[in-house]
Amino acid sequence: MQRIDRALCVDLDGTLLRSDLLYESLLTLLASNPLYVFLLPFWLLRGKAALKREIASRVRLPVEHLPYDERVLELLRTTKQRPRVLCSASDQELVEAIAGHLGVFDEVMASDGLRNLAGRQKAEALNTRFGAGHYDYMGNASVDLHVWKHAGGAYVVNAGASLATAAARNTTVHGHWPAKGGGLRSWIKALRIYQWAKNLLVLVPLLTAHRFFDLPSVLDAAIAFIAFGLCASGVYLLNDLLDLAPDRQHARKRKRPFAAGDLPLLHGLFAAPLLTLAGFALALWTSPAFALVLAIYYAMTLAYSFVLKRIVMIDVVMLAALYTVRIIGGAMAIGAALSFWLLAFSMFIFLSLALVKRYTELAAMASSGKQKAIGRGYDVSDLPLIQSLGAAAGYIGILVFALYINSPDSLEIYSNPRILWLLCPVLLYWISRVWIIAHRGDMHDDPIVFAARDRVSRIVALISILIVAAATTTW
Fold first, then answer.
1. What is the distance between the alpha carbons of residues 96 and 111, in angstroms, rounded to a whole number?
2. Which residue segments constitute the domains of the chain, with CATH numbers given?
3. At what angle do helices 265-286 and 21-32 cross, to 10 degrees?
4. pLDDT tens digit sequence for 128-177
């Protein structure tokens, strides 16, 4: 039976916090300035505690939005009759900020820039402070076994049965709370497999070049689709890791696996480059030209993630360009010539959809009473202007398509190009409907995902395919 006079010492990373402050602070630092990556090895040469201190001195974490484990907090709130100690290997400055925010701790013990308070060193510190056997310890990792050897009792949090069994060999286990979340479902969500629908744009040149019955071209386009998907998933992981703070303040994005603490940040740091390398391996196998386009796409996404998404209007132009680059990649993969008309149409249509995305985010901010989008350069007063610009871009895109119908390029490809005029009212209806839905607040955060899931959009796509087929057919 546990004694109430023993101190309750609680680990932070992975226990009270469903994350790790070292990686949280590191990612916040790199998001503010990626060039800090070159200083990290020099800081680490002075020891892990010194590395943590250097990082902590340069960042401010929004501790009120970190993913805390409610089970641990509930125990701390209902255990006021004995000392409650937050004992962590993270840096003292960050740990004290968390303790001050939560208001449930009587004392803080943490790394101080010289000593890394983990494993044996944590055990020694707790034994010196309270005496062996005079404290209960709550932890989550095998390194905590060094502490449990001297503790009067143990709580095993966010860990499997094997660690709880190992802890029981050293002391009495008062509680075992397995990890919540994680697993395959969380990884599928983190990789955003559903977002691969955007990469279907690489198939557009296959269709416009009328090579959808050419098996080698179909195979190359399929490989290009997978390569873009792997590379995009790597980018999504990196973007989520760099956007932890703003994501946690967003009504929907706070449920993303890394923001919610369902997946370890370290796993994401390894998975992101591995996925990207796999995508580039497939790209090189397809063709050097396609690999170059994929490299340009990746460089653009990095520039967007680190800097450009915070700059007004440049962010939406970049989003439109990223959609268009997928079409260029599809053309390079199958060796098809790029069409000026297709690129012009794509840029304007995708600019309209990028503005829909920003409009939807700002509208959600306005409905929650906020005036400025976090991590963006917009505020809610920009909503009418964004709506006007977005609708105009969409209509200009359709105008480009209308001009293409009577162009020499169209006459060369289509047997009955005049039938393509039927596409104009269909496209005008669709882009107008998208903006009406956005104006009413019913739009998904990503309009491309909305189009893939929306029944009316799928019907519009089918009608468009039938019209193109009729224009191609010799009557």
1. 11
2. 7-177 (3.40.50.1000), 183-472 (1.10.600)
3. 50
4. 999 999 999 999 999 999 999 999 999 999 999 999 999 999 999 999 99
